[in-house]
Description:
Blueprint: E1 4-5, H1 18-32, E2 38-42, E3 55-56, E4 66-67, E5 71-74, E6 81-89, E7 103-107, E8 119-122, E9 126-127, E10 133-136, E11 146-147, E12 158-160, H2 168-176, E13 181-185, E14 189-194, E15 199-200, E16 211-212, H3 215-225, E17 229-232, H4 240-250, E18 255-259, H5 270-276, E19 280-283, E20 288-289, E21 295-299, E22 302-307, H6 311-329, E23 339-344, E24 348-349, E25 355-363, E26 366-369, H7 378-383, E27 386-390, E28 396-397, E29 402-407
Parallel strand pairs: 6-7, 14-17, 14-18, 15-16, 18-22, 20-25, 23-26
Antiparallel strand pairs: 1-19, 2-13, 3-12, 4-11, 5-7, 5-8, 6-10, 9-10, 19-21, 21-22, 23-29, 24-28, 25-26, 25-27, 27-29
Helix pairs in contact: 1-6, 3-6, 4-5
The structure holds adenosine monophosphate (AMP) and magnesium ion.
The site of adenosine monophosphate has 19 residues, from helix 3.
Amino acid sequence: MVPRPRPDTIVVVPTLSFAEARATVQREVQTAALHPHVETVGLASAVGRVLAQPAAADRNYPPFDRSVRDGFAVRSTDIPGTLHVIGEVRAGEVFHGHVGVGQAVEIMTGAPVPSGADCVVMVEHCTRPTTTTVATEKHLAPGTHIARLGCEARSGETVLAAGTRIDFAHISWLATTGHAEVFVYRRPRVAIIATGDEIVDVHQVPANHQIRNSNAWSIAAQVARAGGDPVVLPIARDTLEATQVLIEEGLQADLLLLSGGVSAGKYDVVEQALAAAGAGFYFDRVAIQPGQPLVFGRARGTFFFGLPGNPVSTMVTFEVFARAALELLAGCGVATLPLALARLTKPFHHKAGLTRFLPAEVRDGTATPVDWQGSGDVAALCRANAFLVADADRAEYQEGDTIPILFR
Ligand code: AMP
Ligand code: MG
């Protein structure tokens, strides 16, 4: 879809469904194919970064037939029975002999299984009739308690694809395979502009009719969590000129996020200011709640979102739309929303037609909607740990029905 210029007069831009809007974001950012730059970071700073190169196995894993238990390496055809103990092998050592018929080698977890043996009997399942013998009543199949050479990864096999967001498990694999440094994509710079005449800085004591700028902070936190580098610009006052100046600066970044000023109010000038900067718009309304007046477009190559100003709307629309764009700009692949299912602890109904993301407390597989006062109620959001996702086509939910949830 080619972004449409938005003239100053109101145009009919169809309201997209949640799924259509999310697919639009992913399609447009992906097809723009903006390749992020690559840099090298030490393993200690690699968590949360996105791999720019695949990480393959530098050798077989495990590199030898490895015992996964403390016990005795034996021939499976010799047990149950009493065997002669011909030696010991610890992790970090190699037993150079051969386990013959009627013989056993005492072995520790992580040690290479000596030749001749084909299974390991756990020490808990053995007795020592004499100091030189071991007895067991166990029957074991060949291979029991042995991780075979290469069974986890073959030498040269890709285990982590480029585009992987590095978490602690990936760190473990990178350390295992000797990556003291890793090639990662540079974090996208994300400019953040809060708009509003009523907004004051966090350091200020607001007058009774003012509120502190929380959106720039929550967006910055969400950007950082999603792998971006947040750059918070000054608050834009609700004039075309002030908003335009900041948009010019914001368009220097890899992604521009604005909050507020996208509703139908007389002082909601964000779309007009973006249009003046040459923006095209993919959509400016989505059938979701909170967050209907959501703007997505591109100006001079930079994608932008005009997020609605109510704090919960801002957070929800970031999480389900802007985050998808940011992750693509960061070098990750197209992802589906990580929804889980939970059972409602009470009946629930909403007016169909909008996909709703409602604060909920999810515990032990159940979801309870949290009482809230609407999309300005951050206190209620703090009492929740997830959003339940109410289907636009379904109004009624009974107690015990499963409902998709999105953890925060
Ligand atoms: P708007 O979309 O600009 O009409 O904003 C809707 C409401 O969201 C405003 O009335 C404010 O109460 C709130 N709001 C807007 N921007 C912010 C912000 N940066 N921080 C906290 N609340 C905001
Ligand atoms: Mg406003």
